[in-house]
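Good morning,

Attaching, inline, the backbone tokens for the sequence recovery test we're adding to the shared suite. The designed sequence is right after.
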């Protein structure tokens, strides 16, 4: 089977620092992959290199066997990549629905050429746009607050809205950076349910997360980074017992792990 996504020997250097050191991994369609490791391990940099926010120093990235290495974010988005950020970015003064509409408008812009030429296809795209805004609102379970302004909504709702915005470009592969950070246990459990729903909908997912309950309960496979290097890869059961992973990350409490990298 060909992989949906492959990263080959990705290296990213910042001045003297090697943030990613020859990291390779693949993703199969419909998988949920966990990307874990201590703070500073290179997880966010990995996301930035994949989506094209940063160019890798060397290495190659393929989506559906097409080379997307160094493609800028608007093109990788067009190819089917989307991400959510460590800190949620939503339009605070817009309603929940308007936030999702704005995100979907980005996708519809791609088809603007047809829109100008053919009124009928414009109309049909307008209809499909409305459908997908409702689909997304249902998927992130925020229909009941669709007309509320984002400003003032509970934190868990805002995180879900951040995911909804990423869904606006209709991604095949969704990268989520610490989606459960700051969530209470109930909200984390809701997040895990949402992630499974997205996967069942056909979206392949990569999650960077420190909450091991979320990671171990949700992921089919886990890749572990430490100081920019991949030190382990396998099922949650295998990763949990890996001596090197325990030594570098799992053995430490979250606070200790934070202090250790500082
Ligand atoms: N834009 C940047 N410029 C310089 N150094 C960076 C930049 N982004 C990240 N780094 C460094 O790269 C390393 C990996 O960072 P990051 O990918 O954010 O780690 P993680 O997400 O695993 O906590 C860290 O040492 C960080 O300080
Ligand atoms: Mg990070």
């Amino acid at each position: 089977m060909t992989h949906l996504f492959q990263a080959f020997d990705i290296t990213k250097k910042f001045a003297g620092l090697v943030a990613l050191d020859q990291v390779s991994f693949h993703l199969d369609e419909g998988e949920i992959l966990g990307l874990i490791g201590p703070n500073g391990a290179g997880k966010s940099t990995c996301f930035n290199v994949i989506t094209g926010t940063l160019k890798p120093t060397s290495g190659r990235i393929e989506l559906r066997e097409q080379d997307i290495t160094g493609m800028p974010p608007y093109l990788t988005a067009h190819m089917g990549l989307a991400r959510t950020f460590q800190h949620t970015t939503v339009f605070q003064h817009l309603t929940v629905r308007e936030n999702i509409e704005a995100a979907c408008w980005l996708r519809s812009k791609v088809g603007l050429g047809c829109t100008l030429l053919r009124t009928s296809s414009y109309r049909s795209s307008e209809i499909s746009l409305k459908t997908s805004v409702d689909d997304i609102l249902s998927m992130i379970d925020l229909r009941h607050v669709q007309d509320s302004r984002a400003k003032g909504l509970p934190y868990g709702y805002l995180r879900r809205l951040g995911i909804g915005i990423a869904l606006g470009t209709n991604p095949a592969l969704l990268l989520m950076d610490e989606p459960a950070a700051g969530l209470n246990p109930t909200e984390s459990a809701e997040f895990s349910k949402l992630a499974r729903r997205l996967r069942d909908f056909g979206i392949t997912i990569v999650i960077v997360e420190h909450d091991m309950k979320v990671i171990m309960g949700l992921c089919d496979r886990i890749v572990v980074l430490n100081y920019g290097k991949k030190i382990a890869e396998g099922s949650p059961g295998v990763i949990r017992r890996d001596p090197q992973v325990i030594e570098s990350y799992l053995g430490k409490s979250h606070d200790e792990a934070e202090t250790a990298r500082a």
